[in-house]
Amino acid sequence: MPKIIYKDSECAVIIKPVGMPSQPDPSGDPDAMSVTSELLEAAGEGRELWLVHRLDRAVGGLMVFARTKRAAARLSEAAADGTLGKSYYAVTEGRAEGGEMRDLLFKDSKTSKAYVVDRERKGAKLAVLEYAVLDVKETDKGARTLVKVHLKTGRFHQIRAQFASRGLSLVGDGKYGGRDKGTRVPALFSCELSTVLISRGKTVSARPDTSIYPWSLFDEEKYV
Predict the structure, then answer these.
(1) What total of structural domains would you count in the chain?
(2) Distance between CA 176 and CA 186 in Å, rounded?
(3) Are residues 188 and 158 in the same domain?
(4) Is-catalytic flag, 81?
(5) Which distant-in-sequence residues (6+ apart) come within 8 Å of 204 by Cβ?
(6) Are residues 78 and 93 in the same domain?
(7) Mean pLDDT in residue range 58-75
(8) Structural domain of residue 156, as residue ranges?
């Protein structure tokens, strides 16, 4: 069930559960947008919402919905120009070092995957992120690195594809070369959202469930 952690007259921020679609899709499964509308209506508020960005079904964490057409336009513009601040926690297979990743990313619609390519081609788009290492743990499966990623662009499967291209597949992400089967979903969580529409620039934050693998590898104070 999505949890509303912030709301005002213009937007609502939720924590989307892993495994739930962001919006209605052909599966017919409960989706974050529809359930959030129902929660608002049950609280005696208007239920109308506009989708301005998405999280992959397999990824949990923060999402923001607009509550007016004007807010939707402003949030969509912020998502497009990079002023909708988005950060993620991720756990990589192997030892990451931190820094910037800047690549050309191509989405293959046939395989529903993104690929880093080495030259300009039709459909390839610039993908940029920065990340910091929060902790590293040595396990019987090798090093596992907790990182915090700040997106500068918002491309399809950007974090998963860029890290995998450097031999740092996310734990549980078999689609992008992950070998650790300790979880069946990518170790990726949307942990921060910021925009001028949220309390005049306030950052909303959340943490993954640190009782489950691989988040459980790291002490609570490492999630900063």
Answers:
(1) 2
(2) 9
(3) yes
(4) no
(5) 5, 6, 13, 62, 192, 193, 194, 198
(6) no
(7) 96
(8) 85-194
